[in-house]
Amino acid sequence: MENIALIESFSEFKDDKSIDRVTLMAILEDVFRAALKRKYGSDDNFDIIINPDKGDLEIWRNRIVVNDGEVEEPNEEISLSDARKIEPDFEVGEDVSEEVKLEDLGRRAILALRQNLISKIHEHDNTNIFKQFKDLEGEIYSAEVHHIRHNAVILLDDDGNEIVLPKSEQIRSDYFRKGESVRGIIKSVELRGNKPTIIMSRTAPEFLVKLFEQEIPEVFDGLITIERVARIPGEKAKVAVDSYDDRIDPVGACVGMKGSRIHGIVRELGNENIDVINYTKNDQIFIARALSPAKVTSMVIKEAIEGEKPRVDVFLMPDQVSKAIGKGGVNIRLASQLTGYELDVQREGIADEDVELTEFSDEIEAWVIAEFKNIGLDTARSVLDLDVSDLVKRTDLEEETIIDVQKILREEFED
């Protein structure tokens, strides 16, 4: 029987997709009702009985008996003579239930029905995957490298679900091989054309937080809280931690003896340098800690301008400035992200004869001055105090440009 073969194929879907019996029956009835509606215009007067486990399917159409020649709605009414062909003792006004065979729907309708079923099964499957991974957003997840593309790595988990790790969410030093296990957080899950797109990230600050929770029991148990995180993925991160228990040293507990506890996190993140500092609500103390390893002499927190980050003038001794700024300005950028302040480094005790770089705007282009300011050099002597080779490494300026600038600045003091 064709209906048995068809139902058996439906049972295969059930086995393949692990759909529970109740859900499968609901999907099957929905699909058959759609087919009936297409053929008869309405499915309201049909009863569908399905037993997918046995391959049983029955469709019954219910109609009211009317006098011959008075049939106005063929789908809902049946003439007395036609009714008596089914049962000879039917009378006008009685209900007639007549079985509809699958072949009555037509071969094309059956093929369309099967395609519709496949679509519904996939839709159900995709909806379940979407819900599953939506609940996992922000959580660490592992999957194997399946395919490496130019702009993304495609991963597969144990259930065969596809997860995308875009280039923008990879740490710069990441290198992947097919079959290798990769960890990251589920950053987002979206339905695109009824298919879930699962995005993994290894660069999000939340990934670092979750690694702390996995590797450090006190963080997992809530004895230590991670208050703020700032990251330049694969390069450097600053993590502010706190504990409500005075007996626990949050920094020491996170770092461990000789860095033993944090080592696994650093390795997972491509040797990302991680500074762990004590959090405090005292902004001045927090800013000073965020700028470590530099030692801050003093600071002035300025009144915030609407629409801009509040600014702070941070004063340091000349030998501490480069520590505060860090290689390529990384340290001060992270400190700014962590504290929420725009930090302006100032040298403590600038000599009276020193001159602000902006005073040379007629001779030095603004973008060149900006390059020096980006690494905390805002006076003539601060630029002259450093070697040309050091300035080449720390800025995007050519050696020739730096030599010309230093020449202009030197002439100012010689005059």
Automatic annotation (TrEMBL):
ATP-binding in keyword set: no
Gene Ontology cellular component annotations, sorted alphabetically: cytosol
Classification via InterPro entries: KH_dom, KH_dom-like_a/b, KH_NusA_2nd, KH_sf_prok-type, NA-bd_OB-fold, NusA_N_sf, TF_NusA, TF_NusA_bacterial
SUPFAM superfamilies on file: Nucleic acid-binding proteins (SSF50249), Prokaryotic type KH domain (KH-domain type II) (SSF54814), Transcription factor NusA, N-terminal domain (SSF69705)
Chief location of this protein within or outside the cell: cytoplasm
Compartments it resides in: Cytoplasm
Domain K Homology: start-end pairs: 233-306, 308-376
Assigned keywords, A-Z: Cytoplasm, RNA-binding, Transcription, Transcription antitermination, Transcription regulation, Transcription termination
Keyword Transcription regulation recorded: yes
Subunit structure: Monomer. Binds directly to the core enzyme of the DNA-dependent RNA polymerase and to nascent RNA.
HAMAP family associated with the record: NusA_B
Family according to the record: Belongs to the NusA family.
Free-text function comment from the UniProt entry: Participates in both transcription termination and antitermination.
Protein name listed in UniProt: Transcription termination/antitermination protein NusA
Taxonomic lineage of the native organism: Bacteria, Pseudomonadati, Bacteroidota, Flavobacteriia, Flavobacteriales
